[in-house]
Write a structure and sequence with these properties.
The chain has 277 residues and is of the alpha+beta class. The protein has two domains: 96 residues, Gnk2 domain, C-X8-C-X2-C motif (Killer Toxin P4, Chain A); 130 residues, Killer Toxin P4, Chain A (2-Layer Sandwich). It is built from six helices and eleven strands. The strands form two sheets. The protein has a six-stranded antiparallel sheet, covered by helices on one side. Helix 2 packs antiparallel against helix 3 and helix 4 runs antiparallel to helix 5. The termini are far apart.
Length: 277
């Protein structure tokens, strides 16, 4: 190999190495940006100045919410005093790992301030976690004033819708009964076979600040909205500030079912947002 060719080979190698290193640096950002929240709520009636004491208290509250959720999967606490006091709650889905909980709640704390920088009442939902704060004490109160509904674009055909809805209702009753038991920390999840080849998976969860009665009340409202937003649909998610509901015709909760019985299940969803005055 000539001297010139040798130098050319080195230049090409260095250029490829440079691009490879650049890709490695960008990769975490690409991954992070792909994890979008399921929904958010920024109460425009609670505008605050970025230099206000309330805003500063939010910034001090968020690290407490993150550390508490990572440690226990749930935390409800406050920071500050008087009119500037801020109340916050963070919770991970009860079936996810501590690692997934940690990643999710840290993302939620970062994104909620980006998306709701000037609101004292803000909430953000991810698939694995939920975080909210407010200057009003909301602990222990059922809040279904703002709801996000995801529903599969495809309707159920096998089994027939009547049989499907009957089985879905029975499954929701079963897991709602699980969720209200204190030992289950607001979580209920179960599956049921609809046909030899199709399995229905469902999960509900209440925020852990709710009483047994309040949890049951929130889940009853969520389940009651299935016919309105998700009638005969292959999958549905109901996101409230006090409880969460989801069902699918494929495994989605942990530990994942190794037998995915419906490989052609559509995973395309429409979303509806409902806010009560």
């Amino acid at each position: 190999m000539s001297y010139n060719n040798f130098n050319l080979a080195i230049e090409i190698t260095m250029a490829l190495l440079h691009h490879f290193l650049l890709l490695l640096l960008l990769l975490p950002n690409i991954i992070a940006e792909s994890e979008d929240p399921s929904g958010q709520f920024c109460n425009t009636n609670t505008k605050i100045n970025s230099t206000s004491r309330v805003s500063a208290n939010i910034d001090r509250l968020l690290p407490q919410l993150v550390s508490g959720a990572i440690l226990n999967g749930f935390i409800a606490t406050s920071y500050g005093n008087g009119e500037d006091q801020v109340y916050g709650l963070a919770q991970c889905r009860g079936d996810v790992s501590s690692k997934d909980c940690s990643t999710c709640i840290q993302d939620a704390a970062k994104e909620i301030r980006k998306r709701c920088p000037n609101e004292a009442d803000a909430r953000i939902w991810y698939e694995y976690c939920f975080l909210r704060y407010n200057t009003k004490d909301f602990f222990g109160q059922v809040d279904t004033s703002f709801g996000i509904f995801y529903y599969n674009v495809q309707n159920v055909t096998d089994p027939d819708p009547k049989t499907f809805n009957k089985e879905l209702g029975a499954l929701m009753d079963k897991i709602s009964s699980q969720a209200v038991e204190p030992t289950n920390k607001g979580l209920g999840k179960e599956k049921t076979k609809l046909t030899p080849f199709i399995t229905l998976y469902a999960l509900v969860q209440c925020t852990r600040d709710l009483s047994k009665l309040s949890c049951a009340q929130c889940l009853a409202i969520a389940v009651g909205n299935i016919p309105t937003f998700c009638d005969n649909k292959k999958g549905c998610r109901v996101l409230y500030s006090s409880c969460y509901l989801r069902y699918e015709l494929y495994p989605f909760y942990f530990p994942l079912d190794s037998q995915n019985t419906l490989t052609d299940a559509s995973k395309v969803y429409h979303v509806s947002v409902v806010s009560k005055p």
